[in-house]
Amino acid sequence: GQLLESGGGLVQSGGSLRLSCAASGGVFSIEDMGWYRQYPGKERELVATITHAHSTHYADSVRGRFTISRDNARNTIDLQMNNLKPEDTAVYYCNAQITVTTIESATHLELWGQGTLVTVSS
């Protein structure tokens, strides 16, 4: 399985961007999905997550500005980012917790996208 992201780019402070992520390439079930971001020289940090039942969780720094949504039928998630700030500038990664089930076993795996750069100018 793989995750393909799209939607990053350059935007002015106060502007909006929408990130999308699609899971494909295998037979598996998807549990939680989410978005993380990474600043240069820093560890990856959680931005927002969403369960299969659409329960959401946000980092304090983005709550009220970002909205995560999910389409289980299409295996996609989106991140609508409004009122962007220069400190939101980072590489954003899509994440999925999946289970690959065969007759013999169920294997839990974690997928990551390739990352998409979001740049917010002041």
Structure description:
The chain is an all-beta fold and about 120 residues long. Helices cover about 0% and strands about 60% of the residues. It is elongated, with a radius of gyration of 15 Å. The model has no long low-confidence stretch (mean pLDDT about 95).
What low-confidence regions span 5 or more consecutive residues with pLDDT below 50?
Answer: none
Number of E strands: 11
Radius of gyration: 15 Å
Structure annotation, total helices: 0
Helix fraction, binned, reads under 10%
Q: H/E series, N to C?
A: EEEEEEEEEEE
Give the class from helix and strand content and strand pairing.
mainly beta
List the helices and strands and how they pair.
Blueprint: E1 2-6, E2 9-12, E3 17-24, E4 29-38, E5 45-50, E6 56-58, E7 66-71, E8 76-81, E9 90-101, E10 106-112, E11 116-121
Parallel strand pairs: 2-11
Antiparallel strand pairs: 1-3, 3-8, 4-5, 4-9, 5-6, 7-8, 9-10, 9-11
Question: What attributes does this structure have?
Answer:
single chain, 122 residues, mainly beta, seven-stranded mixed sheet, four-stranded antiparallel sheet, 11 strands, elongated
